[in-house]
Design a protein that fits this description.
With about 180 residues, this protein is mostly helical. The protein has two domains: about 80 residues; about 100 residues. It contains eight helices and no strands. The longest helix has about 30 residues. The protein is globular, with a radius of gyration of 20 Å. It is found in: Cell membrane.
Length: about 180
């Protein structure tokens, strides 16, 4: 719409800049979504689905932004193949890496019963995992969402004792 309006009034610029701006402003804010869901006192299942959708939306918005940024400001002329490859690397790579990171986290948590070590793992694995995702040029946000889903739906119920789960819940509620 912005591109069309600018063209009508005689302002000329590339469509990719409008798309880049759209990718920048389009993802929902997960923090705002959490606040609204809590304010509305939505059922837990609905709340979890909405929060997850918001996080995936945020992750894919960043992937689209990175792809468009590379098109707009990259040193080489973009081709359909290079843009497709970049998108696949960021999106699919982030999802696959997040799955693998979730497996590693599950293995590490299952190998210890020390509450302090479990707490450190819940801080260290996502932090180091995100940094490594950026290093290997896959989407860190998507990787963290996927690994978080795995941890929340698999490791939380299989890898943690009830006592460990209580300690972790208290810590993360405080944070």
């Amino acid at each position: 719409v912005l591109y069309g309006l600018c063209m009508l009034i005689g302002i000329q610029f590339d469509l990719v800049y409008c798309l880049l701006f759209g990718a920048l402003i389009s993802p929902t804010d997960p923090i705002a979504v959490l606040a609204i869901v809590k304010k509305l006192d939505a059922p837990k299942r609905i709340s979890t689905q909405i929060e997850g959708e918001s996080l995936f939306n945020d992750g894919f918005g960043l992937v689209i932004f990175v792809t468009l940024f590379t098109i707009a400001f990259g040193s080489e002329a973009p081709t359909v193949g290079s843009v497709t490859l970049l998108f696949i690397q960021e999106a699919i790579g982030g999802i696959v890496y997040g799955f693998l990171l979730g497996l590693v986290f599950h293995y590490l948590i299952s190998a210890t019963d020390d509450h302090s070590m479990e707490l450190l793992l819940t801080i260290g694995v996502p932090t180091a995992g995100y940094a490594f995702a950026e290093y290997i040029h896959v989407s860190g946000p998507l990787a963290m969402v996927v690994s978080g889903i795995m941890i929340g739906n698999w490791t939380r119920f299989i890898g943690f004792s009830k006592e460990s789960e209580d300690h972790l819940d208290h810590f993360w509620e405080l944070v």
